[in-house]
Design goal:
It is a single chain. By secondary structure, the protein is of the alpha/beta class. The protein has one domain (4-119, 182-225): 3-Layer(aba) Sandwich (Rossmann fold), CATH 3.40.50.300. Helix content is 50%, strand content 15%. The strands form 2 sheets. The chain has a 5-stranded parallel β-sheet with strand order 2-3-1-4-8, sandwiched between helices. A 3-stranded antiparallel β-sheet has the order 6-5-7. The mean pLDDT is 94. It binds BIS(adenosine)-5'-pentaphosphate. BIS(adenosine)-5'-pentaphosphate (AP5) is lined by residues 10, 12-18, 34-35, 38, 55-56, 59-62, 67, 88-89, 91, 95, 126, 130, 139-141, 144-145, 165, 174, 203-204, 207. BIS(adenosine)-5'-pentaphosphate is lined by residues 10, 12-18, 34-35, 38, 55-56, 59-62, 67, 88-89, 91, 95, 126, 130, 139-141, 144-145, 165, 174, 203-204, 207.
Length: 226
């Protein structure tokens, strides 16, 4: 199978993490979620975490120069030779340009960008009810995807918490940041013919199925082009 360099794009709460975990299992490719990487750094009180915390808590993006190096190092590693899944990166035009430059240096390119499309009202409903596993970052929702036992992760038994940036005022700010800084990437990738739109307001299994169909179609198109 040819290498698959995949980007998950979409507003906060669109389901990138939910679908990213499934893709990670299906495709067996390394999964790099910048939000998870940064939250782990905050928890471990590393220099990266200390730099990122204030930006994250207020719903702002961490500076491009901080995050670009983190991802460049991962996609240049031996585990990512067959491809990778990026969730939450790139999030600005300079980050997308830096990703293209790094991949070009490696003789590679972005294969597909899956835009998980949901409107702002749905984002607010989802993030307001999200519960996240304190240890492994596994994601639940009090109504749409409840854990079997209240407050306990089904997967590793850890406590489920409300993320600091899931407070209503921070959710609004994150949405504004998305519209302002990240939405321009839809055009950026559309112009490069790698954008695939996924309807994100269906139940998680249906979204996953649409993603599978989209990737299968893409592979057929690539095979025909060879
Ligand atoms: P990050 O963690 O990436 O946050 P985000 O993009 O805002 O995305 P979320 O994790 O909130 O949502 P998601 O799309 O993964 O949805 P999920 O699957 O959880 O980033 C956090 C912060 O880090 C940023 O604000 C920024 O400060 C910083 N950062 C990260 N990357 C950066 C970068 N590249 N540059 C600069 N700064 C960066 O689903 C949400 C909820 O909905 C869950 O409860 C889930 O169970 C439920 N759900 C999911 N799918 C469905 C469905 N189909 N139907 C119903 N419910 C669903």
């Amino acid at each position: 199978m040819p290498e698959l360099n995949l980007v998950l794009l979409g507003p906060p709460g669109s389901g990138k993490g939910t679908q990213g975990e499934r893709l990670n299992e299906d495709l067996r490719l390394p999964y790099y979620a910048t939000g998870d990487i940064l939250r782990a750094a905050v928890r471990d009180q590393t220099e990266l975490g200390r730099t990122a915390k204030g930006f994250m808590d207020s719903g702002d993006l961490v500076p491009d120069e901080v995050i670009v190096g983190v991802i460049a190092e991962r996609i240049d590693s031996s585990e990512a030779l067959d491809g990778f899944i990026l969730d939450g990166f790139p999030r600005t035009t300079p980050q997308a340009e830096a990703l293209d430059a790094k991949l070009e240096e490696l003789g590679r390119s972005v294969g597909a960008v899956l835009l998980i499309d949901v409107d702002d009202g749905e984002v607010i409903r989802r993030l307001g009810g999200r519960r996240t596993c304190a240890e492994g970052g596994h994601v639940f929702h009090v109504d749409f995807n409840p854990p079997e036992r209240d407050g306990v992760c089904d997967i590793d038994g850890s406590e489920l918490i409300v993320r600091d940036d899931d407070k209503p005022e921070v959710i609004r700010k994150r949405l504004d940041t998305y519209h302002d800084k990240t939405e321009p990437l839809i055009d950026y990738y559309d112009q490069r013919s790698v954008l695939r739109r996924i309807q994100g307001d269906a139940p998680p299994d249906e979204v996953a199925e649409e993603i599978r169909r989209t990737l299968a179609t893409m592979r057929l198109e690539q095979d025909e082009a060879v």
